[in-house]
Amino acid sequence: PRMDGFGLAKSVAEAPHAAQTPIIALTSYDEPEARDQAKALGISAYIAKNDRSQLDHTLSQMRNRLDRDVA
After folding, report:
1. Which of 64, 65, 36, 15 minimizes the C-alpha distance to 25?
2. pLDDT digit string, tens, across residues 22-59
3. Euclidean distance between CA atoms 46 and 16, whole angstroms
4. What is the 3-state secondary structure (H, E, C) of the chain?
5. What is the dihedral of CA 57, 60, 64, 70, to 10 degrees?
C-alpha cells in the first residue's frame, strides 16, 4: 500500500469535506505508542482485533451517532 492507516487518517482529517468523518482503527498492533499516535491524529477509536467487547461497544456508539445525525 502507498500509505498506512495513520497516513489515511491524516489525509481524512485534512480534507475539509471529510474532517468530521469518524475513523475506527482495527488493528493487531496494540502498543501504547500506536494508541498515542492514533489519538494525536484524531482517530475516533483504536481497537485491538482480540478485544471483542471494545469492538462491540465502539460499533454501538457509532450506530447511535449515525442515528442521531440522520434524524
Report:
1. 36
2. 888 888 888 899 999 999 988 988 988 888 898 899 88
3. 22
4. CCCCHHHHHHHHHHCCCCCCCCCEEEECCCCHHHHHHHHHCCCCEEEECCCHHHHHHHHHHHHHHHHHHHC
5. 140
